[in-house]
Here is the input.
Amino acid sequence: MNYKRSSELFEDAQKVIPGGVNSPVRAFKAVGGHPIFIESAQGAYLYDSDGNKYIDYINSWGPMILGHAHKPVVDAVIEKAKKGTSFGTPTEIETKIAELAVKMVPNIDKIRFVNSGTEACMSAVRLARGYTNKEKIIKFAGCYHGHSDSFLIQAGSGAITFGSPNSPGVTQGTAKDTLLAKYNDLESVRQLIEANKNEISCIILEPVAGNMGCIPPQDGFLEGLRSLCDQNDILLIFDEVMTGFRLAPGGVQERLGVNADIITFGKVIGGGLPVGAFAARSEIMDYLSPIGPVYQAGTLSGNPLAMAAGLAMLNELDQNRRIFESLDKKTAYLHAGIANALKSNNVKHTINRIGSMMSIHFTEQPVIDFESAATGNTNTFKEFFHGMLDHGIYLAPSAFETWFITEALSYKDLDDTIAAVNSIAKNL
Ligand code: KE4
Here is the structure.
């Protein structure tokens, strides 16, 4: 593949943007080389500035579940833009998408829209602290909830990727209120609750982790957290920024049958435009300003343009629920093909998968938490990543991310992907 133009564009970008990127994980730091600059995208494909075509398994880190430049979403955005993009006033479309989200997601009465997953998770924790009048939170090593100070403690995604899970700039005063548990380990949570009696406002987690690779909850883990929260007057926050409207119309709550108290959203809910949201039953959400004391606000929150994209996306997912079955089948097919290709070439690996999320870990042990995810061979991942890129397959440039499957992928795309793995595996 020729990456000449991307290389030139990266040189220019680095002069005026820190690291040449507006989000660190895009910089290829973990895999070496330089990032690929994408010119356009359509369906399951990306087209870079050198004219190379890729089958895309990032899909903008999750939003493009129906594929890039999906016509109903694009048309909705174009029509809405002609009438103005943002007024800073209430608009009918905000109510429409809120009604649809409340219909699709179990156990919520009200939803507040913001502009990113970070904002949604940050606001959800503030709401939990205000509602319970308690200050500490429990998060899990390897989970990522955006870059708000309270979360950059053993954070996943880009933070693990760059080996800075605890970021400078986060004060001790903040860090002391964030308690760290081990994913899929209820005993680690019990110990924290015992040691911090009546001080913990909430437990926040990715109910299916996607930021240390894809790590589904083990049987009983979510149910155990639900019980611990009920017994100790703690709110359970499901960060469904990745899983919401992806693992089922109603997300993990629907798919795995465990209810949280507050649920956060991002990615799919915005149809590719900047949208985050958090939702809960009324007794919690009514603690929010302007009716309650917990302040939260945003200039572009619920702007009509982003709402138009999100509403078009959610409408299609709500009205064509067979999409979720198709996504599951495509992901299972891809999993089986890749596993066979790696196994037949004696490549040590573990593949985790649930719904349309999966990840490959170059380790033989089961990957169930941050520690086991970190046993993956990062050099093998680097070779695998660049081999796939050269075969026109675009993966997340980090071993601590998830493959996002889009409905736009054909079975030929999946077969081409499996063939690429088979070809690369011979040299891993
Ligand atoms: P944003 O602020 O990036 O919209 O959302 C933060 C966030 C919150 N919760 C979960 C479970 C998330 O996965 C994310 C963001 N995901 C990363 C990918 N692992 C975004 C990619 C990036 O940082 O550029």
User: Anything to note?
Assistant: The longest helix spans residues 322-344. The longest strand covers residues 200-205. Residues 23, 25, 61, 116-118, 121, 144-146, 157-158, 206, 210-211, 239, 241-242, 266, 276, 401 surround KE4 (CB under 6 Å). Residues 71-319 form a domain with the Aspartate Aminotransferase; domain 2 fold (CATH 3.40.640.10).
